[in-house]
UniProtKB/TrEMBL annotation:
Keywords: Membrane, Transmembrane, Transmembrane helix. This is Solute carrier family 26 member 3, tandem duplicate 2. The chain crosses the membrane at residues 72-95, 101-118, 125-144, 172-195, 247-264, 276-295, 331-351, 363-380, 400-420, 458-489. InterPro entries: S04_transporter_CS (IPR018045), SLC26A/SulP_dom (IPR011547), SLC26A/SulP_fam (IPR001902), STAS_dom (IPR002645), STAS_dom_sf (IPR036513). The keyword Disulfide bond does not apply. It comes from Astyanax mexicanus. It is a multi-pass membrane protein. GO terms for molecular function: secondary active sulfate transmembrane transporter activity. It is found in: Membrane. CDD domains: STAS_SulP_like_sulfate_transporter. It holds the Pfam family Sulfate_transp. Residues 513-695 form the STAS domain.
Length: 724
């Protein structure tokens, strides 16, 4: 008879870990030592050199497979579209960094060239990122404030305020690149895994609020110094000058925001029908430049405009070492944030287009990009989701689109940059604010997180509030600290459970969740759903005692005290022995050790009623099963606590079984002398069902008549030990 495909029947022996090892030979594997890994790391051959070269210069790999006929046109259209957006965003984001507008154009050119050769993502658009620009701006305005004295740094004397800020920004960008390159060479790209999506969401939402408020001075046309401290002080400065609002700036910004927002919604709604998104920011910029030039907004209405844009690049400069010393603490979180955002965006497109990105190589690529860009006074670079979306949605297939966008920036900078000089800064501020929509809409995640995972919701809220009130750098640190505490909390206080068999199956689940379950009398199955280590071993022991309903150490002490009392009564002749009921015994004389019957002519049945008003708490289980299927490791401190807990149960005649334990944990237990004459390797079973079948074989379930007979025997238990 053929078995249905939705069922399976297995006939096999019942396995302990020992018997399974005896019957199934394991492959002998040589485990590498630390010395072996070091030797392998420094071993060099032609194949490894070739692979290393290809990994360091990924362009060689994807250029071999470039499909000219299929991809080139899409890359050209994408490069032109992305270049236009990059120009506008570069101008806008340089305002966030409190720098002259053209330094944002440098960020859309120099880093892109390096990333073209070294980057592994084919779709991200490298350049200025608003959050990173704002963090740079906070450092720049702290070191070179608008009105106050400049930080005393050698090399900045005699320079204008713009040149001083450009030098600080360039040195900071250079240092960010050094940190990123160092992490890439040390292969620590995995560091971004500690920045969860929840933390990044809360952080970027707070950054969006910072960015929004920082642009208000351009929207209202106010002369407010840039801020690097508490946000409340900056807001106060804005509202104390609100009566000085330039109405032309305000109206221009509102019109631009309304039109750009409306067209962006049209782009999103009809993106499947539009061949390319409508470049509304570029269109509005051109219109604003024309109107500003025609009506001479700068002279006639006092509108602050972009102003002079040099028609050449500045000569490269060496970074200022003293700036390094002042900004090292700030540069490291910026390096992490810049890489984390770019890597997250790159992963989205890598999954969508089915190729692999290398986190360590991305660190190297951005590190060299920022070092190269910093030498040319470029703003710190990362990527922006909106700009990368333009590059991908307009048909970009490779970083050829990126290099073409850099060429567009080059043409604008060297040839037609003067056409952007009458552009009002309020237009750039409006464009920045409209592009914050995606980050600000992340606030909608809070109700969802509160319903689904309150610990994640707390991480989001704490990161957001800390970043708002303490600043982005401290806010990120606070958020990371809370996130790590949450991980510790989850592993230190996991949800332990008592399992039961789902009737008619070999499946075991939490007994609170199901109706048709089977729990053998005298058996407890306790599931441990986390690693066991020094911080949670006491928690597990407490949960285990709650599950079984008694404290084995307390019962052991009670039994030893009862035995002492029985000895005294027999010695005085107040007790006489009539029948001996044999039990399995051990030997010791300490209260915390197994009871000792060696000098008595009787073995006490602790499950029966005791004479002479001697009372010992009952133990209603004979077997305790620990499910280790979710235990990934045990440290030395926890191992000692686990051993003590198991012995406490064994010494009151409760059989212990450990099931589904990782073989490597068992090997560790053996190497740490975990096993002795009380705790043996035979307590380990391959599966939970194996252990349950073994228990039912040793302790068959009683029939109704046997249960009634057992009750009768308990009532007549005076025949075991009677009072004389």
């Amino acid at each position: 008879m053929r078995t249905p495909v939705d069922q399976y029947v297995v006939s096999r022996p019942l396995y302990t870990e020992d018997s399974f090892t005896e019957n199934h030979e394991k492959v002998e594997r040589k485990h590498k030592t630390t010395l072996d890994h070091v030797k392998q790391y420094f071993t060099c051959d032609s194949k490894r050199v070739k692979n290393a070269a290809l990994s360091l210069v990924p362009i060689v790999g994807w250029m071999k497979m470039y499909r000219v006929k299929e991809w080139l046109l899409g890359d050209i259209v994408s490069g032109v579209s992305t270049g236009l957006v990059a120009i506008l965003q570069g101008l806008a984001y340089s305002l966030l960094a409190s720098l002259p507008a053209w330094y944002g154009l440098y960020a859309a050119f120099f880093p892109v060239i390096i990333y073209f050769f070294l980057g592994t993502s084919r779709h991200i658009s490298v350049g200025a990122f608003p959050v990173l620009s704002l963090m740079v701006g906070a450092v720049v305005t702290r070191m070179v404030p608008d009105g106050g004295p400049t930080v005393n740094i050698t090399g900045l004397e005699g320079l204008s305020i713009d040149d001083q800020r450009a030098m600080v920004s360039a040195s900071l960008t250079f240092l960010i690149g050094i940190f990123q390159l160092g992490m890439g060479l040390l292969q620590v790209g995995f560091v971004v895994i500690y920045l969860s999506d929840t933390l990044v969401s809360g952080f970027t939402t707070a950054a969006a609020v910072h960015i929004l408020i920082s642009q208000l001075k351009f929207i209202f046309g106010l002369s407010v110094p840039g801020f690097s401290g508490p946000l409340a002080i900056y807001i106060r400065n804005i509202f104390t000058q609100i009566t000085s609002t330039n109405i032309h700036d305000l109206v221009t910004a509102i019109v631009v925001m309304v039109v750009v927002f409306a067209v962006k919604e049209i782009n999103e709604r009809f993106k499947s029908k539009l061949p390319v998104p409508i470049p509304i920011e570029v269109i509005m910029t051109i219109i604003a430049c024309g109107v500003s030039y025609a009506f001479n907004f700068k002279d006639n209405h006092g509108v602050d405009v972009v102003g002079l844009i040099p028609d050449s690049f500045e000569t490269p400069v060496a970074p200022n070492i003293e700036v390094f010393k002042e900004t090292a603490v700030d540069a490291f979180p910026m390096a992490i944030v810049g890489f984390a955002i770019s890597f997250a965006v790159a992963k989205v497109y890598a999954v969508k287009h089915d190729y692999v990105i290398d986190g360590n190589q991305e660190l190297i690529a951005f590190g060299v990009s920022n070092i190269f860009g910093g030498a040319f006074k470029s703003l710190a670079s990362s990527t922006a989701l909106s700009r990368s979306a333009v590059q991908e949605s307009t048909g970009g297939k490779t970083q050829i689109a990126g290099i073409l966008s850099a060429i567009i920036v080059l043409i604008v900078t060297l040839a037609i940059g003067f056409l952007l000089e009458p552009l009002p800064k309020s237009v750039l501020g409006a464009v920045v604010i409209v592009n914050l929509k995606g980050m600000l809409m992340q606030m909608r995640e809070v109700p969802y997180l509160w319903k689904k995972d309150r610990l994640d919701c707390i991480i989001w809220i704490v990161t957001f509030l800390a970043s708002i009130f303490l600043g982005l750098d401290l806010g990120l640190a606070v958020g990371l600290g809370v996130e790590l505490l949450a991980v510790v909390f989850r592993t230190q206080f996991p949800r332990c459970s008592v399992l039961a068999n789902i009737s008619g199956t070999d499946i075991y689940r939490d007994r609170k969740d199901y109706i048709n379950i089977y729990e053998p009398e005298g058996v407890k199955i306790f599931r441990i759903p986390a690693p066991i280590f020094f911080a949670n071993i006491d928690f597990f022991r407490g949960k285990l005692l709650d599950a079984v309903g008694f404290n084995p150490l307390r019962i052991l002490r009670k039994r030893n005290k009862a035995l002492r009392k029985i000895r005294k009564l027999i010695k005085k002749g107040e007790l006489s022995v009539t029948i001996v009921s044999p039990l399995t015994l051990t030997h010791s004389r300490e209260l915390d050790q197994p009871v000792d019957f060696s000098d008595l002519p009787v073995q006490v049945n602790w499950r029966a009623e005791l004479p002479a008003n001697i009372s010992v708490p009952p133990v209603d289980i004979h077997s305790l099963v620990l499910d280790f299927s979710a235990v990934s490791f045990i440290d030395i401190s926890a191992l000692k606590g686990l051993k003590t807990a198991l012995k406490e149960f064994i010494r009151i005649d409760v059989e212990i079984y450990i099931v589904a334990c990782d073989p490597y944990i068992i090997e560790k237990l053996k190497s740490c002398s975990f096993f002795d004459h009380e705790i043996k390797t035979s307590i380990f079973f391959v599966t939970l069902h194996d252990a349950m079948l073994h228990i039912l074989e040793r302790h068959p379930p009683l029939s109704v008549s046997e249960k009634n007979n057992q009750v009768f025997q308990r009532e007549a238990s005076d025949h075991t030990i009677s009072r004389s």
